Amino acid sequence: MLHDEMVMGAVLVHCTGQTASFADSLRDKLVNWKLKTTGMNPATESFLILHRFGCLTDTGTELELRQAIENFRENLQHSINAKNLNRYITAYMQRKPLSERLGDLKCSVLLITGALAPQRKGCEKLYESLMKVQGAKSSCATRELVVVENVANVLAERPDKVIESMQYFLQGIGLVSHLKMQTTPLNLNRRMSMEDYDKPMGRVQLAGGFRPNLTTPNDVPDENN
Fold first, then answer.
1. Closest alpha carbon to 161 in 171, 147, 175, 172
2. Do β-strands 108-114 and 9-13 pair in parallel, antiparallel, or remain unpaired?
């Protein structure tokens, strides 16, 4: 937001834009204190799982979701540094509200959240605040909100929906207009052979004035001429 002229668009996943309530703040401090004094414990573990995955419900991806939660729990117990995790929670507790600075945001914004995510209400409030600011200033920047049904963690449960939403958003601000929409999951696309995937794509050109300094073999000057 300090250098908005350098950003064409922002994609925010589960962004609330507000500080924690008194009850949430008290709970976060208790969890952080337990983590600091006793290390990883069931209360901290439950808090982090809820924050990342939301509440479990009977959905079509429940089996995959439970497996992802078990893997996450395993990492919490054996792989994640408790001291670094303590600082992460502290930084999250000390977050500042964005509502007071939304008027300085001039670029387009895409908000993505899950219908079952604990951050959904906060994300919807941030979207409403963005729309009010946009209406007051008659800004031409777009504001979009995507709520993915029947999921809590959109990145873990519906990455295909996140990719689709981001591609529409990028095309809306004038980028990757030549790119076809992905209609099949990336790991199920068998139309290209391994040799095709290894072939260089050549010059990459993006709309909106961005032209990466990439060259094709034909662009390389011939030293013999």
1. 147
2. parallel
Provide the 8-state DSSP code for 152. Answer: S
The C-alpha torsion from 40 through 94 and 134 to 6, rounded to 10°, is: -90
- Where do the domains of the chain lie? 8-17+98-173, 24-94
Closest CA to 175 of 140, 141, 139, 209: 209
Q: Among 67, 61, 32, 64, which residue's Cα sits nearest to residue 47? A: 32
Give the Cβ contact number of residue 205 at 10 Å. Answer: 10
* CATH of the domain spanning 8-17+98-173: 3.40.50.1820
This model's pTM is above 0.70? no
How many angstroms separate the most distant Cα atoms in the chain?
74
C-alpha 66 chain-centroid distance: 21
The pLDDT tens digits of the residues spanning 158-170 come to: 899 999 999 999 9
Closest CA to 172 of 147, 140, 201, 129: 140
User: pLDDT digit string (tens) for 78-102?
Assistant: 666 767 777 776 776 677 777 777 8
Q: Which residues contact 40 (CB under 8 A, 6 or more apart)?
A: 76, 77, 80, 82
Stretch (H or E) spanning 13: strand 9-13
In the three-class reduction of DSSP (H, G, I as helix; E, B as strand; rest coil), residue 144 is classed as strand
